[in-house]
Specification:
Keywords: Chaperone. This protein is about 60% helix and about 0% strand. The protein is mainly alpha-helical. The two termini are about 20 Å apart.
Length: about 210
């Protein structure tokens, strides 16, 4: 998987060190789910060199091909139509909705408790609640890159992923992929679902 520059973490926790492919992909997904991509990001994904095989690589290739043809304004319109809209969004991006059927419910409270234990807090610049898929991906990226041995351990990563992502992220991706208005974001969701499947398998084997 090819590295693509993404936005900085919105969780206020320092980290250093070289980014890994996993962290890069979590960061890219966070950026794409947090808001519509800029033309520069679309171009960066489209032009990124690619190699390898497998379903995850194919999903990446499909996204890159879509980015090559995509128009930033149309992608923005799609994002706003799917995830913002007027009144209730067409598609929710929050864990609480998929786990309880409502927003701001017990899953969010449990997540906040675990974030407190990790000494992480939502940045004031991030308007979304902590159970937004973008925030979840950013936490995973932080855990992978953290210099804190406890935070970056596979046990911590696995615990956070299995508790707060694994149970609902696939259903969210399926909802996006099957929505008739999802074109660009259908490819993003396909990449995300394959990536989360790979993460699940890897953690199960760890």
């Amino acid at each position: 998987m090819t590295s693509v520059s993404t936005q900085a973490l919105r969780f206020e926790a320092p980290y250093q060190g070289e980014e890994s492919a996993r962290a890069d992909l979590y960061g890219l997904l966070a950026t794409l789910f947090y808001g519509p991509p800029t033309k520069d990001l679309l171009d960066a994904i489209a032009q990124a060199p690619s190699s390898g095989d497998g379903v995850l690589q194919q999903a990446w290739n499909d996204l890159a091909a879509t980015c090559e043809e995509a128009q930033a304004q149309k992608v923005r319109d799609e994002y706003e139509s799917l995830f913002i809209g007027v009144g209730k969004p067409e598609i929710m991006l929050y864990a609480s909705f998929y786990l309880s059927g409502f927003l701001m419910e017990k899953p969010l409270a449990a997540l906040r408790s675990d974030l407190d234990a990790l000494r992480l807090q939502r940045s004031d610049s991030m308007p979304e609640s902590e159970d937004h898929i973008a925030a979840m991906c950013e936490v995973m990226r932080y855990l992978i890159l953290s210099e804190d041995a406890e935070h970056s351990s596979l046990d911590t990563q696995k615990r956070f992923f299995s508790t707060h992502l694994q149970q609902w992220a696939g259903a969210m991706c399926d909802t996006i992929m099957h929505h008739p208005q999802a074109v660009f974001y259908s490819e993003v969701a396909q990449l995300a679902k394959h990536f989360f499947d790979v993460e699940t398998q890897a953690f199960d084997m760890a």
